Amino acid sequence: MRAEAFKRHSEVIGEATSSPKERMSTMMNRKDFLKTGLAAGAFLGSSAYIAAAASGDQNQAASAEQDLEKYRFHPLHRFSNDELVTEREQQGRPHEGKVLAAIQPHSDDIPIFAGGLVAKLIREGYKGYLIRTTNDDSAGRGSTRAESILNDERDTEEVAKILGLEKVYNLNYRNHNIDEVNIKEITARFVFLIRMLKIDTIITYDPWAPYDNNPDHYITGRAVEAAYTGRWDYPEQLDAVEPHSVSERYYFTRRGPQYINRIVEITSHVDTKVRANMANVTQGPGGNSGSLLRRRLAEKGLKLPVLGDDDQTADFNYIKHIMLDLDSENLRLTPSDRKVGEPFGLEWAERYYYRGPIRSSLDEYIAKNAVRI
Ligand SMILES: [Zn+2]
């Protein structure tokens, strides 16, 4: 894990301080942070900690911190080194040589939920591919079903281009019907793609997010998760491709509760995310919704200044200020990207459940404890 690449959340809220005064300041910062509700998953059950922070009692706060530490190792709690991390934008190309796959069931999923992260990682050196599991045959405009498929396919190609991705792989399962397919078939196709493209990092739907009613979302997520296989699985593939495993996964979800352990800064990439959503003309919710709204209002003799005076500005500003922000929960079923960033001092951000490599404690233990024989 490239620890230097990320600003740990503990640093953001000032955990790594030493003097009692600084420690109390940390407590208060953490308390403020907890009030936002964003960290509810990360610090669930730490009410004693919050109370201590609020009281300003240092002894009580120290003992509450120990309680929190115990809680982190409780078997029902999340993985013990699963910390909330703020991943900031980086200079240069620190990810040079790495490969990512942005995997979506539908042409709009990656632009809506992860357009900022994909643009950021590509800018920082990743090579990337877009994989779409359905053909979107029940989604969006077209005088026939076949025309909708073609329109969505063209939109997907455009999205990939805008986000800087190399190529689109369409698996073409029927839209909203992917659960009719044996999941092992989808998993095997992912295993092959992971090996062929040597994918290190995957961005897709959280396989275990509750209350997403779209089978294309959760089946895609679960097939991806199951494609985390050993080197000897699907041995016939190994005549054509080398064994290869994914080491990092960023999971997003829509609606419902979500495990969140990573806030990704996308401030420099939000405009690229907007443009990727403008490419989704066939099924929206971005596309040309802004210019259509502008026209509807004009028919009633009204105008929204934020939509500007031409269609291009209306489409861009609608996505940036209405879809990604003001009316995000209604239009995207996820909180505003601006509000997600706010508690972390970021202008725009996306949120994820990140699963990365597990750090070994053994090397450090050997260095400290091994004796000569
Ligand atoms: Zn979708």
Task: Write up what this structure looks like.
By secondary structure, the chain is α/β, with parallel strands linked by helices. The protein folds into three domains: 3-83, no CATH class; 92-265, 3-Layer(aba) Sandwich (Rossmann fold); 286-331, no CATH class. The protein is built from 14 helices and nine strands. The protein has helices at residues 9-12, 20-35, 47-55, 58-72, 109-123, 145-163, 183-197, 215-226, 270-278, 289-299, 311-326, 328-331, 337-341, 362-369; strands at 7-8, 85-87, 99-104, 127-134, 168-173, 201-205, 248-252, 262-265, 349-355. Strands 1-2-8-9-7-6-3-4-5 form a nine-stranded mixed β-sheet, sandwiched between helices. Helix 5 crosses helix 9. The longest helix has 19 residues, at 145-163. The model is unreliable at 1-54 (pLDDT under 50). Bound molecules: zinc ion. Zinc ion is lined by residues 105-106, 109, 214, 217.
Keywords:
373 residues, alpha/beta, Rossmann fold, 9-stranded mixed beta sheet, disordered N terminus, binds zinc ion
Summarize the structure.
With 373 residues, the protein is of the alpha/beta class.
Task: Describe the strand arrangement of the main beta sheet, using strand numbers.
Answer: 1-2-8-9-7-6-3-4-5
Order of helices and strands: EHHHHEEHEHEHEHEEHHHHHEH
Q: Would you tell me the structural class of the helices and strands?
A: alpha/beta
Number of strands: 9
Low-confidence stretches: 1-54
Strand content: 5-15%
The CATH topology label of the largest domain is: Rossmann fold
Top CATH class of the largest domain: Alpha Beta
- The domain tally reads 3
Bound ligands: zinc ion
What's the gyration radius in Å? 23 Å
Tell me the span between the first and last alpha carbons: 33 Å
CATH homologous superfamily (4th level) name of the largest domain: LmbE-like
Number of helices: 14
Mean pLDDT: 84
Instruction: Bin the helical content.
Output: 40-55%
Sum up the overall morphology in one term.
globular
The CATH architecture designation of the largest domain is 3-Layer(aba) Sandwich
How does the major sheet shape up?
9 strands, mixed
